[in-house]
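In the design runs reported in the main text, the only information available to the sequence generator was the tokenized backbone. The following block is the verbatim input for one such run; it is reproduced so that readers can re-run the procedure and compare outputs position by position.
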């Protein structure tokens, strides 16, 4: 399959297609959150534990309203300090509308606003996406497109971002006006925000 550009795959994503792209942290295998069958396909392809939630990539704070997420001023202040960047932040969602994202784990999902203008513009066109690392469960993440294709040889599209030897994002919870780390990754939380 020919390697594609972000622009050429917008309609593919909206139509439930699945593929690999570079994010701002590493290669991800992506699908639209609006197409549950595409989300389930990623779980199947990655052999991912079906109870593990995927991080949702958004293009702006406005995208959160789609998920029934309302933000108080304390939360907005924290988001504005950490985003855009390598921080995935657990936030409440309407569990009834998004069971394919909450996975029976309660009414919240981790969101991330990536620090990459091209990727943000892409998500503005596609709507929010999931983008877990391009590997099967328990294997090392793909560092280049060739490795991603070995894991997933028959996807609908591939976008080459060169060598990407990055870390996953830091996953955090908001507690009042402070941050609790669930998974330490690329992002370093400012000391004044730490619980």
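Verbatim output:
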């Amino acid at each position: 399959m020919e390697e594609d550009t972000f622009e050429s795959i917008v309609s593919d994503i909206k139509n439930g297609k699945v593929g690999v792209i570079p994010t701002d942290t590493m290669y991800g295998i992506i699908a639209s959150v609006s197409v549950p069958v595409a989300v389930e396909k990623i779980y199947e392809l990655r052999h991912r534990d079906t109870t593990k939630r995927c991080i949702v990539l958004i293009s702006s704070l406005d995208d959160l309203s789609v998920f029934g997420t309302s933000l108080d001023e304390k939360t907005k202040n924290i988001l504005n300090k950490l985003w855009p960047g390598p921080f995935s932040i657990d936030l409440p969602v309407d569990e009834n509308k998004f069971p394919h994202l909450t996975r029976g784990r309660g009414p919240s999902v981790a969101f991330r606003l990536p620090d990459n203008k091209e990727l943000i513009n892409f998500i503005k066109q596609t709507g929010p996406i999931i983008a877990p690392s391009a590997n099967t469960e328990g294997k090392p993440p793909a560092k280049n497109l060739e490795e991603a294709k070995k894991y997933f040889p028959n996807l609908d599209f591939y976008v080459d971002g060169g060598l990407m030897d990055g870390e996953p994002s830091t996953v955090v919870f908001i507690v009042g006006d402070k941050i609790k780390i669930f998974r330490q990754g690329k992002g370093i939380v400012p000391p004044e925000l730490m619980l």
